[in-house]
Amino acid sequence: MLVVSGDIALRRSLGQVLAAHGYTVAEADATQRLDLLVARTRPLLLVLDLDRPDGERLAPMVRVRDASRELPMIALSVRGDEGDKVAALDVGADDYLTKPIGTSELLARIRVVLRRMRSDLNAPDVLEAGDVRIDRARYEVTVDGKLVHLTPIEFRLLAMLARTPGKVVTREVLLHHVWGPNTDQAHYLRVHIAALRQKLGAHKVLTVTGIGYRLADR
Fold it and tell me: Is the bond preceding 100 in cis, omega lying within 30 degrees of 0?
């Protein structure tokens, strides 16, 4: 596990907590080239402090996501407004925590992300529903043969819906799969579903009122 922060005290504190809970931890400051650091250390998960002295909040995360689609990333920041959270999630964060951070919550979020990774390993590499094709190995989505760019969270939501095309998936199942149990991210689920409809076509992702969503199978 890799912890990157320009705040030495925070970085060391998180490193000690994670090590005490059995994780192998590497620490780095914010001055290092993050994508190269990830390639060298090959971490299981990246905990990234977005509050950098150079002001480059999201650019390092974009470089990492371009180089590694599968690496889970948890972003940390003092900024807690919705726009900052959505921006970080859109460029590749799997989760976003506002500082000051409760270590129990961070550990819980890490467990959720790692469980989801294990669950994803059991899914087929290629999922199809009508003219929507999801290639999990290549991290690509096409609609009628045309490539569609999705954020990591949109990709996971679509892949979850595509496991049972034509059948409803409840909001609770989607929330649990993407954000973990006891989550308060219901609003973000609606935001990301709306984004999926815009990118795939409004008729592709259907709302089942009061229950959840289903992916059209034709």
Answer: yes
123-175 residue pLDDT tens? 678 999 999 999 988 889 999 999 999 988 899 899 999 999 999 999 998 98
Check if the beta carbon of residue 134 is closer than 8 Å to that of residue 158. Answer: yes
138's CB contacts (< 8 A; 6+ apart) are: none
Residues 77, 51: Cα–Cα separation, whole Å: 6
Q: Which residues contact 41 (CB under 8 A, 6 or more apart)?
A: 2, 26
Tell me the torsion sign for CA atoms 196, 197, 201, 204: positive
Rounded CA separation 114/106 (Å): 12
Q: Quick check: 29 and 47 in contact, CB under 8 A?
A: no
List C-alpha distances in Å: 27 to 19, 33, 47.
Answer: 11, 13, 10
Structure tokens at 55: 């002001």
Q: At what angle do helices 152-162 and 103-121 cross, to 10 degrees?
A: 50
**86 vs 88: CA distance, rounded Å:** 5
Burial 91-116 (b: 16+ CB within 10 A, else e): bbbbbbbeeebeeeebeebbebbeeb
pTM (two decimals)? 0.72
Q: What is the DSSP letter of 29?
A: -
